[in-house]
Amino acid sequence: GDSVTQMEGPVTLSEEAFLTINCTYTATGYPSLFWYVQYPGEGLQLLLKATKADDKGSNKGFEATYRKETTSFHLEKGSVQVSDSAVYFCALSDPGDTGRRALTFGSGTRLQVQP
Amino acid sequence: ETGVTQSPTHLIKTRGQQVTLRCSSQSGHNTVSWYQQALGQGPQFIFQYYREEENGRGNFPPRFSGLQFPNYSSELNVNALELDDSALYLCASSSSSGSALQETQYFGPGTRLLVL
Question: Per-residue pLDDT averaged across A37-55, rounded?
Answer without folding.
Answer: 92
